[in-house]
Amino acid sequence: MNHTENNMQSNQKQYVAPLFESFTLGKLELASRIVMAPMARGFSPDGVPGPEVADYYRRRAEQQVGLIITENVSIPHASANQDPANSPHFDSVAARAGWKHVVNEVHRVGGKIMPQLIHAGIARENFPQPEGAAPSIGPSGIDVYGEVKGETMTVQQIRDVVQAFADAALQAQQLGFDGIELHGAHGYLIDQFLWETTNQRSDEYGGSIANRVRFAVEVVEACRRAVGPDFPIVFRFSQWKYPVYTAKLAHNVEELAQLLQPLAEAGVDIFHASTRRFWEPAFDGSPLSLAGWAKQITGKAVITVGSVGLKQDFTEFFASGADAEQQGSVSVLTERLQNGEFDLIAIGRALLADPEWAAKIRDGRLDELKPFHAEAVGKLY
After folding, report:
1. Residue 323 contacts by C-beta under 8 Å, 6 or more apart in sequence?
2. Catalytic residue check, 381
3. How far lies 314's CA from each of 196, 310, 370, in Å?
4. Do 138 and 122 touch, CB atoms closer than 8 A?
5. Exposure of 67 by Cβ count < 10 A (0-12 exposed, 13-18 middle, 19+ buried)?
6. Helix/strand/coil (H, E, C) string of the chain?
7. Beta strand pairing call for 180-186 and 112-118
8. What is the pLDDT of residue 14?
9. pLDDT, tens digit, 9 for 90 and up, residues 35-80
10. Please, what is the angle between helix 253-266 and helix 214-227, to 10°?
């Protein structure tokens, strides 16, 4: 390696160094600020993650990923699992044994791991269900297009689902996970309650923002009671719903505060602000991202996510000397991290395609990065 190449690699390492600082929150200690974003994999037949799933997560944990958030794990409720043939759960001895092996493998290489707990709600209708399956349910039986696709939940069903989330949280703790993430984004059940389009209820769970957030608050409170004060709870939320990318939970900062403050008070430790592009302003009149507003409103730790590592200029930045203002570049990411806009950075498809992505970024081995291709979705690299 010549002098110029040495200088370039040194420059690269300087820019990415903040991504590899440690992070501590209570008893949770992470070796880096990089989080593996939850991504559905569909490689758990009958809900059981096998050894290849454990290897898949371990490979990321041993390559500088500070925290693994797993693919969504269905809570123990008859209508929860979107894809019962292939999506994981905790509901059987075999499934729990499989997850225990996953946890052990991640811990063996010094990583930390949390399951993403989910109830699909009406979104379950996007997958074929086996004959005799329980009906799909939601706050109003309405999907993201405003069409009736299932049954409206009774208050008793709401209570049952709240308890099922708490049961899953306790199971996760007993299996040795390092915390849990509650999936309150992208048009799944918790998000269906939060969004006025899918929540047309006229009781205490519908109408005002305070009422629409009630179900999510009860889920968080129940999970907190189940796991105690020191077990981290992450809450993922989003403005957009799949595939309605223009959706808005909150139209301004005041509405966002009405959603997030009750959740913080209920026991959320970390908010995971899911956006399609991490650098985009959340509201007019301010450059602050959705993650930045979540942190400013709640004072809690925040994970940002959205196209990190996917834009070509993320890696071209070093070689081309791109302007520091270039949207999505590594300089923008690390500058915002150092300025306290967010605390952790979740990586999705880039890590799906390349288990060594984080280590290669840290070491300046940018020419070795494997680009994301659609076929990566169907494999466990």
Report:
1. none
2. no
3. 36, 7, 13
4. yes
5. buried
6. CCHHHHHHHHHHHHHHHHHHCCEEECCEEECCCEEECCCCCCCCHHHCCCHHHHHHHHHHHCCCCCEEEEEEEECCCCCCCCCCCCCCECCCHHHHHHHHHHHHHHHHCCCEEEEEEECCHHHHHHCCCCCCCCCCEECCCECCCCCECCEECCHHHHHHHHHHHHHHHHHHHHCCCCCEEEEEEECCHHHHHHCCCCCCCCCCCCCCHHHHCHHHHHHHHHHHHHHCCCCCEEEEEEEEECCECCCCCCCCHHHHHHHHHHHHHHCCCEEEEECCCCCCCCCCCCCCCHHHHHHHHHCCEEEEECCCCCCHHHHHHHHHCCCCCCCCCHHHHHHHHHCCCCCEEEECHHHHHCCCHHHHHHHCCHHHCCCCCHHHHHCCC
7. parallel
8. 80
9. 999 999 999 999 999 999 999 999 999 999 999 999 999 999 999 9
10. 30
CA distances from 260 to 189, 218, 294 (A): 17, 13, 7
Look at the chain and count its residues: 381
C-beta of residue 357 within 8 angstroms of C-beta of residue 29 = no
Pairing of strands 23-25, 28-30: antiparallel
Q: What parts of the chain have a pLDDT lower than 50?
A: 4, 311-325
pLDDT value, residue 318: 36
pLDDT at 7: 54
Q: What structural domains and CATH numbers belong to the chain?
A: 21-347 (3.20.20.70)
Distance CA 59, CA 48 (A): 19
Catalytic residue among 188, 205, 242, 245: 188
Report CA-CA distances (Å) from 224 to 77, 115, 170, 173, 203: 19, 15, 9, 11, 25
